[in-house]
Design goal:
2 copies of one chain form a homodimer. By secondary structure, chain A is α/β, with parallel strands linked by helices. Chain A is 43% helix and 17% strand. Chain A folds into 2 domains: 154 residues, Winged helix-like DNA-binding domain superfamily/Winged helix DNA-binding domain (Arc Repressor Mutant, subunit A, Orthogonal Bundle); 216 residues, Dna Topoisomerase Vi A Subunit, Chain: A, domain 2 (3-Layer(aba) Sandwich).
Chain lengths: 382, 382
């Protein structure tokens, strides 16, 4: 049944003109299939050498200033009882991605899971039991092909908004982010150059804030207009779409990325992921991480520096302390005196601070005093 | 310190021209303050009669088809040891709201908490210890004044996006939702008529879906273009901004609201809140609930009707079963045979279904077959 539907959906689609990126991904997918077929026809065991995504294969590259993967791989064989299912799943995900590219459509990773899940004919086995089984296979395919999942036409949940002095084209629609009212432009999951082109940008930098509520404060005060910038948020840990967009704004338009995050281990970690990449998904760093990003604040010294009152302190708990010590040991923080001081002072303070704490000074203190001062004085952590 | 800042922020603001809505809210706030002052000057104990937000004061109105509040109130007195702090907090929140309206600014409810939190002079008491103490006071003030928190210039987190055949004006910016690319217009928290005006709308209905990932599928397939509608999502339980916007689209533009949600108690509950209002915040129903909203699906009969395969079933757990039984007893579902059948079949099925399950049929089955069929046949639950 599922198969029949697939065929009809491909058959009814108009003949597609593939973008250069789609062509490249398709040729990688076809090469993958060809290798398996060639092995089978030659009577050899088909296998895939999948770059290992374990922590031991992740390393910090001081020259590029990103987290990247090492060279170790794991062989996944069809004729190995322990690996046969994963082998099948990998080819199934590859087939699903090829189908999406051919159809000119995209799917959520949850959608792909549903699309590919079925009872294997003549058995009582499902291709996947849960999405948790499918997601790592998608990541395997990403590293195997050196293609971001967005290039495989897959997306995760979308979060995060943007306003500011930039005009972009999204799927053919021209969007002037300086005329997006109080709501803003909702950043899509897939922001690859085939979907989004930058048309005109007069902004001089990007201010990325942690939460939508803080973003709304900055937007209402027209910070981006007064300071000629772009304003983004990622609703907490920014999703891939937001990170990839920051990467493109930085690398293609040369815009500095300034991050305004909470003074707590979670804020440090958000910064770390934007700047160096994520440890779990190290393979994506070269196309996601922005090593030049700056941490504007909040800083552990801000309680004194801004003359905040005791009432805004939030006591550190055990999880915070443990996490802060972990983060201090990350190689990209371990070698930086300023970051060591920052994290030590957080622990010495014994409390954390949210960006909203600045509202206790004045509703617009954060937009009118704190942030402009940090930027004017180039007073940030690197 | 905090007080000084308040003054300066008010002093530096240009003389404001208040909107009619702001004038009305301000006069309510001033009347509240006047009553307290008058009582004090007359040597009487100041008090506030706050409509009771307990479950026992919430009732289902079959005529209006919304959940609404009864008439019982609780007296909150200044000269009562158990009530003095809450009395002070209520006036403090009222003062905060007045400050925001005077300044022409808005704040998140978390921001207001920080703004108002301080050590009370000469004591070791804080005005509020946590935001959990402040939020219910905001709700008290809303019912006391019969003003939505948006009218008090307060907002919650924003979530949810919109595209479709409507042109609106948001804070002076004209936004054509039919030219918003793959990302869409991010729905703000405050969508009151002072912020958002509908300029032109050719859409014939609103399709509201549960999640951003499903919304992306519909947007990519240009469903709103083919079926001349508006497409919204609320990232799960829709936040107030999205609900209020659906209310306005329905009541001001006469658009039917169709909901496409998961076939599980959570999906039923999202529908219930959109349609009848929330039990906890019953006082907002008259300005938020859309009693005419329709539940397009997914339905418990869809597994058979759409010929889905076993692999998409998700087994009901104990929480699901308990929640389904609770929802079946809600008065607005209890009296409807169709809903009783729907919930009974869910329990009989023993499994739930996500909207994404339809992807197993075909990538675009939900946009090309399922949803158009339901709408064409007017096949929905009311």
């Amino acid at each position: 049944m599922a198969k029949k539907q697939t065929k009809s959906s491909t058959a009814t689609a108009a003949p597609r003109v593939f973008t250069a990126a789609d062509k490249e991904t398709l040729s990688k997918l076809e090469a993958l299939a060809d290798r398996v077929i060639a092995a089978a026809e030659a009577g050899r065991d088909p296998f895939l050498d999948i770059p290992s995504r374990t922590l031991s294969n992740v390393r910090w590259c001081p020259r590029k200033k990103i987290i990247e993967m090492g060279r170790s791989t794991n062989r996944r064989q069809l004729f190995n009882l322990h690996q046969a299912k994963a082998f099948m799943q990998t080819l199934l995900v590859a087939k699903g991605a090829a189908e999406l590219i051919h159809a000119g459509k995209t799917l959520s990773i949850r959608g792909l899971y549903y699309r590919l899940k079925h009872r294997i004919k003549g058995t009582s086995e499902n291709t996947f039991e849960t999405q948790e089984e499918c997601d790592p296979i998608i990541e395997d395919l990403e590293v195997l092909l050196d293609s971001l999942r967005e290039q495989l036409h897959l997306y995760a949940d979308k979060r995060g908004d943007m306003v500011g002095n930039i005009v972009l084209v999204d799927s053919g629609d021209e969007i002037d982010c300086s005329r997006m009212g109080s709501g803003g432009y909702a950043i899509p999951s897939i922001v690859e150059p085939e979907v989004i082109q930058f048309k005109k940008c007069t902004a001089k930098f990007v201010l990325h804030v942690e939460k939508g509520t803080v973003w709304t404060r900055f937007n209402e005060d027209k910070f981006w207009q007064k300071h000629n910038c772009i304003l983004t948020h990622g609703a907490g840990q920014p999703p891939r779409g937001v990170r990839r967009l920051l990467y493109r704004l930085h690398n293609e338009l040369g815009l500095p990325i300034y991050c305004l995050l909470d003074n707590d281990p979670w804020g440090y970690y958000i910064y770390s992921v934007i700047k160096q990449g994520s440890i779990n998904l190290a393979y994506e760093s070269p196309r996601m991480a922005v090593p030049d990003a700056k941490f504007l604040g909040l800083r552990s010294c801000d309680f004194e520096r801004c003359g905040l009152s005791d009432s805004v302190k939030i006591e550190l708990n055990q999880v915070d302390r443990r996490r802060a010590l972990q983060i201090a040991k990350y190689p990209w923080f371990a070698q930086k005196k300023e970051w060591q001081r920052e994290i030590k002072q957080l622990l010495d303070n014994g409390f954390k601070l949210e960006v909203e704490a600045l509202i206790s000074k004045d509703i617009s203190y954060v937009t009118e005093v704190y942030t402009p001062e940090r930027i004017a004085k180039r007073d940030w952590l690197d």
